[in-house]
């Protein structure tokens, strides 16, 4: 028995939807990989990684996006085959995949908001981390240097964070009172910073260093950086989940007529 006009429309819409679905899967997969491999984000994430964890909380969500992107490919295949062959079993499988993917995407969006609060709270502890590990732990030192170079800032609350730090008490800066990346630089390489005027940057006289050293702490700029990532995760999680609802509706309509 032939399909009704409404079912044929649902079939056409379902095939079209799957093309969009696959594209969205590619995008979700790409964003997940980007958050995991982008040097800037990986370096900043190191600063807010909770003790005992291998990754920052947002990086775990990025791994979830990679997994969701992979599920989209398989689910879309079931949807296309089910619609073209008018196979009820494949359409039911497709519906279940859409439901699971929608739940996973909503979870990413919700968890990103929950994790944001934990991550932002972690920022307040970075001043202590700087005092204890800057100049001692290579990865932590690089992360602070990168942040100070990228955001044109110094320390977490300001240059005073270096006072009494292990870096200063152990004279790891060889007489410097702040990291070279706190200075106004003639380049943008945090691994090989070149201050415009190193001696004046390191001066303890405000009249001399004020024009050659960043006085603002990195706290607010790191906060903005991490909040923007949260907005991206929420938009992807909730936006993609809304998209799945249409696919579920089309698959139900077609399944009823098969």
From TrEMBL:
It is found in: Membrane. The keyword Transmembrane helix applies. One of its GO terms (cellular component) is plasma membrane. Keywords: Membrane, Transmembrane, Transmembrane helix. InterPro entries: Tetraspanin/Peripherin, Tetraspanin_animals, Tetraspanin_EC2_sf. It is a multi-pass membrane protein. The chain crosses the membrane at residues 12-37, 60-84, 91-115, 229-255. Its main location: membrane. It comes from the Eukaryota. The keyword Transmembrane helix applies. It holds the Pfam family Tetraspanin. Belongs to the tetraspanin (TM4SF) family. This is Tetraspanin. It comes from Trichonephila inaurata madagascariensis. The gene is Cd82.
């Amino acid at each position: 028995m032939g399909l009704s006009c409404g079912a044929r429309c649902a079939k056409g819409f379902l095939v079209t939807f799957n093309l969009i679905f696959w594209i969205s899967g590619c995008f979700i997969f790409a964003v997940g990989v980007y958050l995991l491999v982008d040097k800037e984000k990986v370096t900043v994430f190191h600063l807010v990684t909770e003790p005992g964890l291998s990754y920052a909380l947002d990086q775990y969500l990025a791994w979830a996006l990679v997994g969701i992107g992979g599920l989209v490919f398989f689910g879309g295949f079931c949807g296309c085959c089910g619609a073209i062959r008018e196979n009820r079993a494949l359409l039911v499988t497709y519906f279940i995949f859409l439901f699971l993917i929608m739940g996973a995407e909503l979870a990413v969006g919700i968890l990103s908001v929950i994790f944001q609060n934990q991550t932002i709270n972690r920022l307040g502890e970075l001043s202590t981390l700087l005092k204890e590990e800057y100049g001692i732990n290579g990865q932590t030192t690089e992360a602070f240097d990168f942040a100070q170079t990228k955001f044109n800032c110094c320390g977490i609350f300001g240059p005073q964070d270096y006072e009494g730090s292990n870096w200063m008490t152990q004279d790891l800066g060889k007489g410097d009172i702040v990291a070279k990346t706190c200075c106004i630089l003639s380049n943008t390489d945090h691994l090989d910073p070149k201050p415009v005027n190193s001696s004046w940057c390191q001066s303890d006289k405000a009249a001399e260093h004020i024009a050659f050293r960043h006085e603002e702490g990195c706290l607010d700029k790191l906060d903005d950086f991490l909040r923007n990532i949260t907005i991206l995760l929420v938009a992807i999680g909730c936006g993609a989940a809304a998209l799945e609802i249409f696919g579920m509706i089309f698959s139900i309509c077609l399944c009823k007529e098969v």
